Every structure is written in C-alpha cells, then in structure tokens.
C-alpha cells in the first residue's frame, strides 16, 4: 500500500498511519492519552490538528517522522512556522525563572525605558500585521517585562500588562484560544488595582472569551470594566477614557451578538457609537483604534453572528466608503475584510467575497497566510464556481485547494 498522497487532509494521514501500525482508534487514543471520540474527530477533520506539539505526540506514537503528517502542500512554510512559533510563545509563558529569582543567562537586564521601547515596537509590529516578526520579539519581551516588574511592581505594571496584552492579541489571530486565555488572564492579574489598565486588559480578555465560546462571560467582563472607568460626566470625559470605555462596550455588544441577543447587541453598539462621536476618528488610545468607523466595523461582525449577512454587507460597504477607513491600521482593515468576505459568501456573492480576500492579502498578507480562519475561507471561496481567478491562484499559493 502506497504512502498517502500529499493532497490527503492531515486527519486522513493520521488514520492511514494508524491502520498501517495496526492500531484501533481506542488503542491509539489510549497511547495518546486522548479519548476515542477525540481521535475520530481528528481523523475526520472535525477537530483541527494545527499544533506542532500535538503532531509530534501523534508522530511519536505512530513511530514516524512528523514530516509524514505535514505534507508540504497541506502545511506550507507559513503554517509550519506558525506552529513552531506558538510553541516558542508557550515556552515563554511557561517560564517562571523571574518569579523564582533565578539569574539571567547573560546577567544583563533591560531598563524600564528600554522595555517601554520594546512594548511600543511590539504593538506597531502587530498593527502592521508583521506576525512572524512579532513572534520572534515576544519571548524576550515577556521575560524583560517580568524582570522590570519584579523589583518595582508599580513602575513596571503597565509594561507587563501591555506585554501580555499584545501576546494575547496575536494568539487570538493564530486561533490559539487556550494560550491566549493564559496571556489575557496574566494581563488582568497584573492590572489588578488600576482601573484603566484593567479596562485595557479586559479588551483582550473579551476577545479571548468570545473565541473560546464563553460569550456570556466576555460580555460580563467587558461591561464591568466599562462601567468602572466611565466618567461621571461624558461631556467632561477625556478622550482616552471615552475610547477605552467605548472599546469595552463594543466587546460587550459583540458578546451579546454571539449569544444571539440582537436587541442587547444593538443597544450596546449604539452606546459605543455615541462615545465614538465624542472621541472622533484617528485615535489609538490603549491600542483600541476606537472611533465611529470602528463601531461600524463591529456592526458587521455582530450581524454575521446574528445570521444577518445582508446587513453585514450594508454596514461593510458604508464603513469602507468613509475616509476614516484608511486611517485604521493594516491589521484592523485586513481583519475586517475577512469578515466582509464571510458576509459576501453567505449572501451567495463569491465574486465580492474573493475580492475582499484579495484586498485583505494586499493590505496585510499575514492576515491571510497565518490565520487559520482566513485560510479556510480562501479554500471555501475558491471552490465556488463563480470564484475569481485571483482567489483560485491565492488558494493554490496557500496550498488550501
């Protein structure tokens, strides 16, 4: 019997090698420390096998090299790099040398201003969607921020919170819910006692909880943080306070939409829109990019969760037709275009869905090349008879045909 062709999905590759090793699903599951149901779903493609550590465990049990599971066309360089990078971040988040007061390897510790520069650079790199570069920055950033925080918790608190926040934001993009939750939780713990820092950390926690299927908790966290920092008099509120409060209301609105509560979603996003008018466009307080256009883009995501794809298309075309659209970072715009492609696809318009994906790739290629949700969407659109040729070529380049 020949080795499975490179076009076979990775779950079927696992099944092939399991049968070759004369293992039943149950015996294979026992050796992995998983359930039979887990193995069955993995082999059928219901459960994604996109963690390098998991693939390495499977390969060890099957007595094969992990490359036998990672066909080049199934897992091209971008995906392999992403899996390896996530493991590096996992290692950084699992390191406790600082808390245990162990010495550094070099004996050198960065100063607070140097770490502040690293944090600023990390956020810029994230907003430019330079994810591979950010991945290489994060382990050192996390360690350096911890080392500044330990001797002077008050001075180093904001830096540590931001280091965990940007880590959580990237992990959300990479669809790593468990690890993102750890980073967001660390940010919340570091921010305890400081309302503004806690609110900023809650933005990322809300995103993580929604991704993890805990929309109710996401809404509760976001609303609690928003009302805690909301100024008593909005007319005298500072823009940075209003924008953070508004960003949290957006998270609460999206959480309500994820739960199917259209009235609560509309009310919360309307509240956010009122604050957005006061804040105006072009600000980026606490890395939220909050403003009127950002709220309109949130309405697109909410409409998708409420199965109102036609409304999502209307909001998308309205928001992207405004001048302020170009003021948003590349990461924000490309991420929204992926939502727009979903909306077009759900309204049986694969042509515009394809165009949105191509625009996203041109705006920030990493959003398409490194995000699992985007790669799956490219494959879906490419399979449509009316898909534009540019998307078919993109799918081939991504090896997701």
UniProtKB/TrEMBL annotation:
Q: Which residues form the HTH cro/C1-type domain?
A: 14-69
What are the alphabetically sorted keywords of the record? DNA-binding
CDD domains membership: HTH_XRE (cd00093)
Keyword DNA-binding on entry: yes
Q: Which InterPro entries match?
A: Cro/C1-type_HTH, Lambda_DNA-bd_dom_sf, TransReg_Diox_bact_type
Under SMART domains, the record lists: HTH_XRE
Name of the protein described by the UniProt record? Transcriptional regulator with XRE-family HTH domain
């Amino acid at each position: 019997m020949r080795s499975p062709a490179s076009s076979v999905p990775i779950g079927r590759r696992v099944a092939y090698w399991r049968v070759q090793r004369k293992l039943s699903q149950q015996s294979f599951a026992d050796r992995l420390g998983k359930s039979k149901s887990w193995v069955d779903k993995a082999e059928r493609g219901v459960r994604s096998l996109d963690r390098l550590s998991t693939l390495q465990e499977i390969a060890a049990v099957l007595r094969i090299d992990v490359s036998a599971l990672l066909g080049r066309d199934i897992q091209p360089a971008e995906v392999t790099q992403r899996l390896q990078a996530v493991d590096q971040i996992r290692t950084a988040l699992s390191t406790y040398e600082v808390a245990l007061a162990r010495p550094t390897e070099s004996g050198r510790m960065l100063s607070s201003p140097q770490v502040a520069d690293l944090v600023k650079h990390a956020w810029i790199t994230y907003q430019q969607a330079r994810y591979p570069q950010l991945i290489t920055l994060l382990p050192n950033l996390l360690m350096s921020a911890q080392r500044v925080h330990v001797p002077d918790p008050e001075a180093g608190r904001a830096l540590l919170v931001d280091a965990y926040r940007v880590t959580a934001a990237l992990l959300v993009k990479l669809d790593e819910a468990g690890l993102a939750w750890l980073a967001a939780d660390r940010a919340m713990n570091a921010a305890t006692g400081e309302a503004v820092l806690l609110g900023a950390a809650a933005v990322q926690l809300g995103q993580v909880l929604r991704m993890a299927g805990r929309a109710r908790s996401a809404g509760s966290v976001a609303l609690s943080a928003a009302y805690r920092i909301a100024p008593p008099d909005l007319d005298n509120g500072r823009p940075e306070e209003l924008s953070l409060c508004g960003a949290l209301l957006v998270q609460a609105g999206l959480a309500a939409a994820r739960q199917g509560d259209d009235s609560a979603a509309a009310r919360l996003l309307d509240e956010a829109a009122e604050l957005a008018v006061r804040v105006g466009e072009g600000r980026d307080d606490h890395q939220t990019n909050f403003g009127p256009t950002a709220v309109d883009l949130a309405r697109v995501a909410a409409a998708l969760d409420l199965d109102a794809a036609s409304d999502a298309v209307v909001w998308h075309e309205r928001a992207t037709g405004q001048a302020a659209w170009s003021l948003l970072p590349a990461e924000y715009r490309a991420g929204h275009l992926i939502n727009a492609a979903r909306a077009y696809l759900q309204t049986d318009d694969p042509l515009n869905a394809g165009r949105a994906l191509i625009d996203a790739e041109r705006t920030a290629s990493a959003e398409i090349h490194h995000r699992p949700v985007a790669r799956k969407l490219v494959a879906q659109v490419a399979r449509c008879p009316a898909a534009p040729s540019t998307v078919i070529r993109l799918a081939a380049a991504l090896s997701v045909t």
